[in-house]
Amino acid sequence: MVELRVALRMQRQQVLHRENPIAYVAYVHEAALHMEFGGPRVMRTQLNHLCDLSEQKNIDVRVVPFKAGVFPGAGQAMVYVLAPVPQLDTVELDTAHGTEFLHGQAQLDKYRAQLDWMETASLSSSDSRDFIHGIAGRL
Fold first, then answer.
1. What is the CB-side half-sphere exposure of residue 135 using CA atoms within 13 A?
2. Of 12, 55, 76, 106, which has the fewest Cβ atoms less than 10 A away?
3. Whose CA is closest to 132, among 19, 42, 54, 17?
4. CB distance 116 to 20 below 8 Å
5. Is 102:111 a contact under the CB 8 Å cutoff?
6. Alpha carbons 54 and 130: distance in angstroms, whole number
7. Which residue, among 113, 89, 93, has the nearest Cα to 103 in the 3D structure?
8. What is the rounded average pLDDT of the residues 42-51?
């Protein structure tokens, strides 16, 4: 099951690198940037890779710093997919029991509000990149 999920995620990433790549905004909480899964060398490599990706014109990586405080949905991985028609937007949640897809208007409104909050609370793209490089440099 793990292999299937990894394969799916790798395949899904191709939309970022194709001829006409999609626009992608990632909000990463500062806490995630300090978790040393695999040790300092692995973490430094991952952080540098994240910064490299953020240099692409279609990818925007934004850090939500600790000082932003607590917010609804913190600690939950979420993908908000914009459709050509807003009523077809979809939210994908990674949960302990697998992936869950949400598409009800009230659910979409809730997660859109979370993204709006994160956009306001996060560091700018360049400040986020500097912030991540700083963490990587201390490892």
1. 25
2. 106
3. 54
4. no
5. yes
6. 11
7. 89
8. 94
For CA atoms 37, 16, 24, 9, the dihedral sign is negative
Give the CA distances from residue 47 to residues 90, 97, 131, 138, 139, in Å, rounded to whole numbers and listed in that order: 28, 27, 10, 11, 10
Residue type, 109: D
Does residue 36 surpass a pLDDT of 90? no
The verdict on pTM exceeding 0.70 is: yes
Q: How many CA atoms lie within 13 A of 138 on its CB side?
A: 8
What token pair was written down for 42? Answer: 């692995």
Given a cut of 80, whether residue 31 has pLDDT beyond it is: yes
| Residues ≥6 apart with Cβ < 8 Å to 6 | none
Q: DSSP readout, 42-89?
A: HHHHHHHHHHHHHTSTTEEEEEE-GGG---TTTT--EEEEPPSSGGG-
